[in-house]
Amino acid sequence: MNNKLLRPIYSVPYASWLILFVIAPILLILYFSFFDITGNFTLNNYRNFFTSTYFTLTMSSFWYAFLITFFSLLFSYPTAYFLTKTKHKQLWLLLIIIPSWINLLLKTYAFIGLFGLYGPINAFFEVIGIGQKQLLFTDFSFVFVSVYIFIPFMILPIFNALDKLNPTLIDAARDLGANHWTTFTKVIWPLTINGVKSGIQVVFIPALSLFMITRLIAGNKVITLGTAIEQQFLVTQNWGMGSTIAVFLILFMFIIMLLTHGSERGTTTNGKIK
Known about the structure:
By secondary structure, the protein is mainly alpha-helical. The longest helix is centred in the N-terminal third of the chain and has 34 residues. It has 13 helices and two strands, in the order H-H-H-H-H-H-H-H-H-H-H-H-H-E-E. Strands 1-2 form a two-stranded antiparallel ribbon. The protein has a single domain, classed as MetI-like (MetI-like fold, Orthogonal Bundle), CATH 1.10.3720. It is globular and about 70 Å long.
């Protein structure tokens, strides 16, 4: 049978999955966003989202997502770079990725034990004379734990981009007299920018909707869009407002994906690097 005739049949499982678990939930959220807590049709949910309260909440979510993404990138790029230079790079990469297989809740509770007043970190502070410090329920602990959790997802795409980088391009830059900084800014960084963009996508987007870590590590002192959605659905039972926040969260995620989308670089056309 002709492959062109079979192609629509092959696409049925993917299309079914897309419709049932992506499109249908989004449409359901959009539907519920037009109803108030009593089940009456209303546009007040959208009007309320543009009040100062939700504006502050949105800005706070973007700020913390930016911090988490920035520090993840700050540590991930040099780590990925040095991994590509090691002898057993795939093994070292696997060792970095393995912690991401552990349940998120277990890792969060582990940090509660580490940062607690009677945890090992405060015990060390006592030994060196600093005394006990309140590490839990702070902005620092929230950002630190979030960065730890997301770093493997930032390292992987950057590592792949660096690993595919043609070393002759670096050698050519050195032969032409470029120093290490110029080689990095003019050759390495531009040719691996798509890996950075992919890392930003997989870190920034979920960081916008964090809620479990804000509960357990930040002690509700950090409120994000994800926390607000959880409160609206599970505490106030206002599914309409929760769905409205989710609609805008999806919209923000879509915009971020558009901004971080990039074409493949590193190929050559007529002697020019694309």
